[in-house]
Amino acid sequence: MRHRTAVLAGAVGLSLGFVGIAFTQAGDWGAYQVGDKRSGYTYAQPETQAMQDDDFENPAFLLVDLAAEQWSIPDGELDKACADCHGDVENLAGVGATYPVYHEGWGKMINVEQRINECRTENMQAEPLKYDSKGLLGMTALVKLQSRGMPMNVAIDGPAAPFYEKGKEFYFERRGQLDLACANCHEDHAGEQLRANRLSQGQPNGFPTYRLKWQNMGSLHRRIKGCNRQVRAEPYKSGSDEYVNLELFISHRANGLPVETPSVRN
Amino acid sequence: MAVVGPASAESLVTYTIVDDFSIPESLTGAPGDPVKGREVAINRRLGNCLACHVMPIPEQPFHGETGPDLDGVADRYTEGELRLRVVDSKSINPYTMMPAFYRVEGFHRVMERFAGKPILTAQEVEDVVAYLMTLKEE
């Protein structure tokens, strides 16, 4: 059901030895850098990287393991489990790397969290899981874990195009009393020190992530809320159209970087 | 010369920008306190200048690097020029990352508890300016 391996090593066809060497050389981040794109992993402390490198050290797997059990347990009025339709969760390999995607029925984008809940309410007639609940975080991470090591591959053409534009607008729009856009930090100043924190490119390819500051797992939307609050801007709700569109923009921006879910970040 | 008034915020004092580049007169009508200004620059809830700038404040372990080093800044700018940069740096460069520390309008989705309030009071602005004016290279 799950594969506890050295992250990325097998999946991207690099030998473990090569990866190990790559990380000791400044500026060469192996699979974690693609062109100018750098995963948050490359900005993390070595101890944090080590936690991510070993699935048995990565605390996110507590929730992923629970979700893996849940996968086969029937729930809801129809008494169906995820496995009844999808079979082995490994059948979802590659799927997580493409989200958010356009949802015909909704007429807008849907992310993995929302797809899981749609499955629950529509196909299982079960209660939806709360956005940042352990259940939804774990299941989202389990689904994305099946794509770990595969390049992010999010489409923005066709019906997704206008939503991508909205996400892009959000990304470059200044907000809050500090009057900062996402781009001010994560485009223009990535890699630089912001007092005690090093600014990353804000890449989403490792979410949901285990964040040391939270001492828990959290969603991408929770992380964005934190950023919004730091610039003293009113955040949106997790799962809001605004954040899903932003997720689309930054996920496409991450195209080519490997899925790292569940990553460990500080 | 342009006079900027507190259109909807009663608490902001009016100031005058000279030559698009300087606010020569103190917002409070009195000189600031450089010792307090240094504290404001360190305080994460107030100026938090160290978030972005390296400053000659050695007891603080982490200094940001997104903005210019402020050591010697008083040699490079006049007091009035520094005041405008603290009050509303975007009036000089609209693309700057630096927040306007004494402005309450033209913002998007400000958190409710900060809405209509400047980041710093007029007194705190003056204290910071007074502190910055001490940053001369020997």
Can you describe this structure?
The complex is a heterodimer of chains A (266) and B (138). Chain A is mainly α. Chain A is built from ten helices and nine strands. Chain A has helices at 16-22, 46-53, 61-70, 82-86, 112-124, 134-145, 161-172, 182-186, 220-230, 241-253; strands at 33-34, 37-38, 101-103, 108-110, 193-194, 197-198, 209-211, 216-218, 263-265. A three-stranded mixed β-sheet of chain A has the order 8-7-9. In chain A, strands 1-2 form a two-stranded antiparallel sheet. In chain A, strands 3-4 form a two-stranded antiparallel sheet. In chain A, strand 5 and strand 6 (197-198) form a beta hairpin. In chain A, helix 7 (161-172) packs across helix 10 (241-253). Chain A is globular, with a radius of gyration of 18 Å. Chain B is mainly alpha-helical. Chain B has a single domain, classed as Cytochrome c-like domain (Cytochrome Bc1 Complex, Chain D, domain 2, Orthogonal Bundle), CATH 1.10.760.10. Helix content of chain B is 25%, strand content 4%. Chain B is built from four helices and two strands. Chain B has helices at 34-42, 73-76, 79-88, 122-132; strands at residues 2-4, 15-17. In chain B, strands 1-2 form a two-stranded antiparallel ribbon. Chain B is globular, with a radius of gyration of 14 Å. Chain A binds chain B through residues 173-180, 184-185, 188-189, 192-196, 199, 228-229, 232-234, and chain B through 44, 48, 50-52, 61-66, 90, 97, 99-100, 107-112, 114, 117, 119.
Entry keywords:
heterodimer; A: 266 residues; mainly alpha; two-stranded antiparallel ribbon; B: mainly alpha; Cytochrome Bc1 Complex, Chain D, domain 2; 4 helices; globular
Mean pLDDT of chain B: 93
Count of domains of chain B: 1
The main sheet of chain B comes to: 2 strands, antiparallel
Helix and strand string of chain A, N-terminal first?
HEEHHHEEHHHHEEEEHHE
The CATH superfamily title of chain B: Cytochrome c-like domain
Order of SSEs of chain B: EEHHHH
Instruction: Write down how many β-strands of chain A occur, each being a DSSP E stretch of 2 or more residues.
Output: 9
Strand content of chain A: 5-15%
Q: What is the typical, i.e. mean, pLDDT of chain A?
A: 92
Largest Cβ-defined interface = A-B, 23 and 24 residues
The main sheet of chain A comes to: 3 strands, mixed
- Spatial order of the strands in the main sheet of chain B? 1-2
Categorize the overall geometry of chain A: globular
